[in-house]
């Protein structure tokens, strides 16, 4: 896949030293997180960054993109006369957007601060590449996120999406719009939703969003629509009365790509001696994992081990990927022609920690193992629709054939989830 990264960032000019003139130190967590996100993009060798901004030209209906061979901007209006730069536009992707999204419109415009701020940190971190700039969709942001994702996936170069937007502007009395209780409430819902269940983000009532005076909600929905992975909140703070959130929405991994290769080789009867194991050092470690297959968003197979039983993680993934596609008793074996329709993820399990009660569990963070005699059940963390510890343990017991009323020993564990 050519879309390898999706992130969400704020765009306060004050975090740039040339603008903040010392005040930026009050938002150091945001600055550090912006550099971290930029470094992730560089690590993935991204050649084109597509930025979505609420301050670029917008349309009541459809999607606006900036046209031109070179896109330029500056921060002179914020007192930083010498902070300016230009980037080459990816005209191939711009052409595809114009061709494939009927309700898209081109505009000529300078780069706004919603674009300039993330580009500042990308350039400072050492990134050089092409850009595409979109105005934030005012309607159907997730739909347009999916459409753009499809276009980027067909690109021969590695691409990233950076969705730009601030959260509530009503966190403090001395903030830009004063204080309103909905301000911190909306920001709390967004941060909690990204950490635990993104459906909470989508369910925020429009009246709360209006009262909070946010500007980046549709940018965030665009990012979630484009591709959602194992979301990580890098930072959140509101030192100047405005919510600044930096989050990784999706990051591709060779670990999950290797799982797909293993299943593909098996289903297409290719010799495994030609299978190339990626150079990720994690694959050499002795760890257990679960491989999950989904088709059209629905589970198509999931197999794994509680403890590592093979020489290394690469061997665990190979075995579990094939088993998930062919031996999960809940499903018919996956057929070769289904492979393009299937998404693959790998959960690498951390160490098991024995616990004494439900109060030490959190279904958003920890998976659970239940044991009674020889019966053992496991449930992974951060699963859609499982919001309570009680529900998590009940399902784990059910998988093990243990009745809901029976006492069990409990273990918890964390996972690192990898997506293609």
Produce a short descriptive summary.
With 420 residues, the chain is an alpha+beta fold. Helix content is 31%, strand content 26%. The strands form 5 sheets. The protein has a 6-stranded mixed β-sheet, with helices on both faces. Strands 12-11-13-18 form a 4-stranded antiparallel β-sheet, covered by helices on one side.
CATH class of the largest domain: Alpha Beta
List how many beta strands DSSP finds: 18
Sheet-strand content, in percent, reads: 25-35%
Shape: globular
* Count of spatially separate domains: 2
- Assigned CATH architecture of the largest domain: 3-Layer(aba) Sandwich
Q: In which range does the helix fraction lie?
A: 25-40%
Mean pLDDT: 94
Stated plainly, the CATH topology of the largest domain is called Protocatechuate 4,5-dioxygenase, Chain B
H/E element sequence? EHHEEEEHEHEHEHHHHEEHEEHEEEEHEE
Major β-sheet annotation = 6 strands, mixed
Task: Name the poorly predicted regions.
Answer: none
Name its key features:
single chain, alpha+beta, Protocatechuate 4,5-dioxygenase, Chain B, Glycoprotein, Type 4 Pilin, 2 domains, 6-stranded mixed sheet, 4-stranded antiparallel sheet, 12 helices
Structure description:
The chain has 420 residues and is an alpha+beta fold. The chain folds into two domains: 249 residues, Protocatechuate 4,5-dioxygenase, Chain B, CATH 3.40.830; 166 residues, Glycoprotein, Type 4 Pilin, CATH 3.30.700.20. The protein is built from twelve helices and 18 strands. The strands form five sheets. It has a six-stranded mixed beta sheet with strand order 7-2-8-1-10-9, with helices on both faces. Helix 3 packs across helix 5, helix 6 crosses helix 8 and helix 10 packs across helix 11.
């Amino acid at each position: 896949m050519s879309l390898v990264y999706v992130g969400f960032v704020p765009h306060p000019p004050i975090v740039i030293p040339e603008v903040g003139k010392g005040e930026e130190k009050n938002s150091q967590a945001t600055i550090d997180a912006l550099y971290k996100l930029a470094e992730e993009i560089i690590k993935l060798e991204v050649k084109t960054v597509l930025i979505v901004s609420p301050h670029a030209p917008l349309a009541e209906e459809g999607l606006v993109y900036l046209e031109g061979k070179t896109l330029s901007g500056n921060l002179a209006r914020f007192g930083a006369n010498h902070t300016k730069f230009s980037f080459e536009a990816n005209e191939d992707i711009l052409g595809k957007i114009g061709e494939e999204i009927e309700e898209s419109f081109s505009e000529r415009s300078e780069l706004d601060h919603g674009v300039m701020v993330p580009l500042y940190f990308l350039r400072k971190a050492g990134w050089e590449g092409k850009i595409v700039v979109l105005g934030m969709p005012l309607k159907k942001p997730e739909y347009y996120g999916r459409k753009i994702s499809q276009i980027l996936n067909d690109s021969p170069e590695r691409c990233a999406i950076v969705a730009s937007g601030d959260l509530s502007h009503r966190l403090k009395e001395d903030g830009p719009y004063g204080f309103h209780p909905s301000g911190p409430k909306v920001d709390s819902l967004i941060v909690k939703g990204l950490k635990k269940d993104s459906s909470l983000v989508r369910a925020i009532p429009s009246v709360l969003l209006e009262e909070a005076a946010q500007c980046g909600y549709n940018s965030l929905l665009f990012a979630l629509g484009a591709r959602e992975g194992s979301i990580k909140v890098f930072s959140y703070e509101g030192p100047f009365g405005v919510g600044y959130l930096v989050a990784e929405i999706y990051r591709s991994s060779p670990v999950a790509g290797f799982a797909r290769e293993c299943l593909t080789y098996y289903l297409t009867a290719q010799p495994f001696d030609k299978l190339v194991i990626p150079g990720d050092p994690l694959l050499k470690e002795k760890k257990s994992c679960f491989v999950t297959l989904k088709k059209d968003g629905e589970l198509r197979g999931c197999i794994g081990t509680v403890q590592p039983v093979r020489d290394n993680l690469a061997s665990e993934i190979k075995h579990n990927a094939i088993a998930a596609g062919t031996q999960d008793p809940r499903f018919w074996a996956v057929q070769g022609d289904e492979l393009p329709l299937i998404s693959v993820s790998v959960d690498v399990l951390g160490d098991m920690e024995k616990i004494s009660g439900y109060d030490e569990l959190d279904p958003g963070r920890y998976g659970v193992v239940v044991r009674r005699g020889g019966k053992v059940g496991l449930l992974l963390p951060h699963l859609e629709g499982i919001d309570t510890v009680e529900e998590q343990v009940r399902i784990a017991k059910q998988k093990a054939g243990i009745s809901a009323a029976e006492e069990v020993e409990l273990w918890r564990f964390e996972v690192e989830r990898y997506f293609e």
